[in-house]
From TrEMBL:
Enzyme class, spelled out: transferase
Essential cofactor(s): heme
Subcellular location: Periplasm
GO MF terms, alphabetically ordered: electron transfer activity; heme binding; metal ion binding; oxidoreductase activity, acting on a sulfur group of donors, cytochrome as acceptor; transferase activity
GO cellular component, one term: cytochrome complex
Catalytic activity: L-cysteinyl-[SoxY protein] + thiosulfate + 2 Fe(III)-[cytochrome c] = S-sulfosulfanyl-L-cysteinyl-[SoxY protein] + 2 Fe(II)-[cytochrome c] + 2 H(+); S-sulfanyl-L-cysteinyl-[SoxY protein] + thiosulfate + 2 Fe(III)-[cytochrome c] = S-(2-sulfodisulfanyl)-L-cysteinyl-[SoxY protein] + 2 Fe(II)-[cytochrome c] + 2 H(+)
Organism of derivation: Hydrogenothermus marinus
Main localization category: periplasm
Biological process per Gene Ontology, one example term: sulfur oxidation
Residue ranges occupied by any Cytochrome c domain in the UniProt entry: 42-131
EC number: 2.8.5.2
Alphabetized SUPFAM superfamilies for the sequence: Cytochrome c
Protein name per its UniProtKB record: SoxAX cytochrome complex subunit A
Keyword Heme: yes
Amino acid sequence: MRMKKFLMASAIIAASTSMAAEVISPEDWKLYQEGINPGEIFAEEVGGKLFNKPMGPEGKSCASCHTKNGEVEEKVATAAAYYPKYDKSCGKVINLEQRIQLCQAKYQKVKPFSLKSKENVALTTYLYYLAAGTPIKIDLSEPHVKEYHDYGRYVFTLKRGKRNLSCQVCHEFAVGHVLRMQPLYPLGTQTINGSKGKANASLWPAYRMTKDKVFTLQQRFLGCQKQAGQKKLPLGSKEMVALEVYIKSLANGVELKTPGLRR
Ligand code: HEC
Ligand code: HEC
C-alpha cells in the first residue's frame, strides 16, 4: 500500500516538473498590476468584432439574427451558462464552441472556424463574457446530458498514459497537497480532505498568464493531459464534451466570472 502510494506520488511529481518552468511575461505582469484582464480585451476586440461581421453568401452576421435594439438577445447572451446542451438536429450533446459552428454552417452558410482556431475561441470567449454573472446551470434532468455527465465522471476516473494517471488522482486524491508550489483544490464546489473547491469551470475560458492567451476549458484539459503523459483527446470529442459536462455541472449554481485570469 505504502509502495503504491509512493509510486503514485512520484508519477504526479514527474508529471508536474515542467509546470514550474512557466513564467509570466513582464508586459503581462504590468497589465495585471493595473487590474487589466487581457482576456476581456480579447473578448471584446476580437470576439465582439467577429460577432458583428457579415459573412457568407447572404452577408449575415451573428448580430443580424441575435441582436435586438442594439443588444444581444437574452438566450444568446446567457447561453454560456447553459451549454453543453443536447441538440436535436445533431443528435448529441454539444458545447458552446460547437453551437457556434452549427450556426455558422446552418445559418451563415460558411465553413465553420475550427475548434482550435483563434476565431472560434474569440467568439466563445465573447459569449462567455456577455454571460458573466449568470449562474451555471447544466441541466442534469435532461437524459442525454445526464448520460454525458456519467460518462464524463468515468473519463475523469480512468487511468491512462505512460504514468497511469487519471484526472481524479490529482484533482481528488491529491487535494490538500501542494504540487510545484500550487495547492490543489477540488475542481467543483465540493470539499475534499478539508479543502473547499473553487468551482473552476466558472472561470473558463481564461487568459493564461503563463501562455499569453485565452484557453477554453477543453483546451485547459489538453494541458493537463499533456503534463500527465496521456494521449490528448480531440477537442469536441464525446469524451471531451462529457468531461466538460461533468466538471461544469460540479459548479452548478455558481455565477460565471468569465473570462477568468489564470496562471
Ligand atoms: C440567419 C440567422 C442566424 C445567424 C446568422 C446566426 N444564428 Fe445563432 N441561432 C439562430 C437560430 C434560429 C437559433 C435557434 C434555433 C436552432 O437551434 O437552430 C440560433 C441559436 C443560437 C444559439 C443557442 C441559443 C440557445 O438557447 O441554445 C447561440 C449561442 C447562437 N445561435 C450563436 C450564434 C453565433 C455566435 C452566430 C455567429 C457565428 C450565430 N448564432 C449566427 C439563427 C442564427
Ligand atoms: C499530474 C496531476 C494532474 C493530472 C493527472 C490532471 N491535472 Fe488538472 N491540474 C493539475 C495542476 C497542478 C493544475 C494547476 C492548478 C493551479 O494552477 O492552481 C491543474 C489545473 C486544472 C484545471 C484548471 C484549474 C484552474 O481553474 O486553474 C482544470 C480544469 C483541470 N486541471 C482539469 C483536469 C482534467 C479534466 C484532467 C484529466 C484529463 C486533469 N486535470 C488531470 C494537475 C493535474
